[in-house]
């Protein structure tokens, strides 16, 4: 069995298929953590790894537990305890009931005398609805230890935990249980990537850019996470979230595919990825332009890459150009006019600080004083922009490179 098929994260699965297999201990932890395959499948896959791996090879890789037992001991204990729990859970006994639980509710609902009857009572799941769990308990011992089966979306038993009883909260037991281990998992994500888990969306921050991709301080499964930003449109607030990226169906999302209430994250992703757009984002967000941020989309992934620094068409690039032009677009959010900036001094050397805005529209307008540029040169610049308006707008929208724009201007002199 391929360990990758046990991982509930399409984006991670696709990435791991391009890499050599992970070391056996890391593969085992990921299989044990799976919520999409049945417990019998998990036990079979783990037995295969156990039989094919010399004990010393389990030490390889990057993994950790809050327990100092050797890995073969941890693995063997998991195999033994889950086989025992699975047999006990399936066994119907007098005085024992099965109750379907949903969410965090302890309202156990209708008790059933058999596991089959409890499973048959579960309604079909909605697309993003989490599967319920089933608790097996004695009717005369409400506070005693019980077995709780976590179900997959196919309503198969994926894991069985012990809840309550004298060992509840025993860190020795929890820390040495195979699914609770930390395993380093290579991932494909970059800062600014948007991902979806169910009906939740996040933008990853710089936590995805660890040196060498290893979180060396990881000690248990709670450290198998990346950090992201979420957007709560109803309250107009952002959240800082811990995203368990190997679970809950993690998949990449293109900005254009975000639902309406999540569109703000497209603008956040651009800030997170490029950094230099932060000022424009904050100005829009704090001055009543949130709708502009939500309707703005970054250039598609295959758009020409932005030039380093401020792209410009200089007098040295274009014979007869009356003044240097500095180009906008791509990283700027809606709420700002589409425009170029014109150097007011008329000097050949570029000086962005001495510029005035010229709008990109059929009748271009200067947004301030034109400095030392002569009236004839002002008209010449406006005419150049008006005649080549489509090309300037294509550059603004990330559909044309600076070099392609320059070639167009030369052809239309």
Order the strands across the largest sheet as they lie in space.
3-2-4-5-6
DSSP helix count?
12
Helix content: 25-40%
Percentage of residues in DSSP E strands? 15-25%
| Mean pLDDT level | 84
Topology, number of strands? 16
Radius of gyration: 30 Å
Low-confidence segments, given as residue ranges, are: 301-309, 330-334
| Cα end-to-end separation | 66 Å
Tell me the major beta sheet: 5 strands, antiparallel
Structure description:
With 413 residues, the chain is α+β, with helices and mostly antiparallel strands. Helix content is 29%, strand content 17%. It has 12 helices and 16 strands. It has helices at residues 10-16, 24-33, 39-52, 71-90, 115-120, 171-175, 264-274, 278-286, 290-295, 375-387, 389-396, 402-411, and strands at residues 63-64, 96-101, 111-112, 133-138, 146-151, 157-163, 182-183, 194-197, 200-204, 226-232, 237-243, 251-252, 312-313, 325-327, 339-343, 355-359. Strands 3-2-4-5-6 form a 5-stranded antiparallel sheet. Strands 11-10-9-8-12 form a 5-stranded antiparallel sheet. Strands 13-14-15-16 form a 4-stranded antiparallel sheet, with helices on one face. Strand 5 (146-151) and strand 6 form a beta hairpin. The relative contact order is 0.09.
Keywords:
alpha+beta, 12 helices, elongated, single chain, five-stranded antiparallel β-sheet, 413 residues
Summarize the entry for a quick read.
The chain has 413 residues and is α+β, with helices and mostly antiparallel strands. The chain contains 12 helices and 16 strands. A 5-stranded antiparallel β-sheet has the order 3-2-4-5-6. Strands 11-10-9-8-12 form a 5-stranded antiparallel β-sheet.
């Amino acid at each position: 069995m391929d360990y990758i098929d046990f991982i509930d994260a399409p984006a991670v699965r696709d990435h791991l298929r391009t890499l050599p297999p992970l070391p056996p201990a890391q593969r085992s932890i990921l299989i044990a953590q799976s919520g999409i395959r049945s417990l019998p499948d998990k036990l079979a896959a783990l037995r295969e790894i156990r039989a094919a791996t010399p004990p010393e090879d389990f030490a390889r890789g990057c993994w950790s537990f809050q327990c100092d037992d050797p890995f073969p001991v941890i693995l063997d204990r998991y195999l033994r305890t889950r086989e025992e729990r699975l047999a006990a859970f399936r066994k119907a006994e007098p005085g024992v009931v099965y109750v379907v639980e949903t969410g965090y509710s302890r309202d156990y609902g209708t008790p059933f005398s058999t596991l089959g009857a409890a499973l048959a009572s579960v309604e079909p799941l909605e697309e993003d609805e989490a599967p319920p769990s089933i608790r097996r308990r004695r009717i005369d011992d409400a506070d005693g230890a019980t077995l709780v089966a976590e179900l997959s979306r196919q309503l198969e038993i994926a894991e069985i935990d012990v809840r309550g009883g004298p060992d509840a909260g025993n860190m020795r037991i929890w820390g040495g249980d195979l699914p609770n281990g930390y395993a380093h998992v290579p991932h494909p994500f970059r800062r600014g990537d948007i991902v979806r888990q169910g009906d939740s969306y996040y933008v990853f921050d710089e936590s995805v850019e660890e040196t060498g991709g290893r979180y060396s301080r990881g000690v248990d499964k709670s450290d198998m996470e990346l950090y992201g930003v979420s957007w709560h449109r109803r309250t107009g607030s952002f959240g800082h979230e811990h995203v368990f990226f190997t679970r809950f169906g993690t998949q990449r999302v293109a900005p254009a595919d975000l639902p309406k209430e999540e569109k703000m994250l497209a603008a956040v992703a651009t800030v997170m990825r490029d950094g230099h757009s932060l000022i424009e984002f904050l100005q829009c967000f704090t001055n009543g332009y949130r709708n502009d941020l939500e309707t703005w989309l970054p250039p598609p992934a295959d758009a020409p890459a932005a030039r380093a620094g401020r792209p410009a068409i200089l007098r040295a690039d274009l014979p007869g150009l009356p003044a240097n032009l500095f180009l906008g677009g791509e990283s700027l959010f809606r709420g700002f006019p589409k425009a170029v900036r014109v150097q007011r001094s008329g000097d050949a050397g570029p000086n962005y600080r001495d510029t005035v805005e010229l709008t990109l529209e059929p009748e271009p307008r200067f947004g301030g004083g034109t400095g030392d540029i002569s009236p004839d040169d002002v008209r010449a610049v406006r005419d150049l922009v008006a005649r080549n308006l489509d090309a300037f707008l294509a550059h603004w929208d990330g559909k044309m490179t600076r070099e392609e724009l320059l070639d167009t201007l030369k052809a239309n002199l």
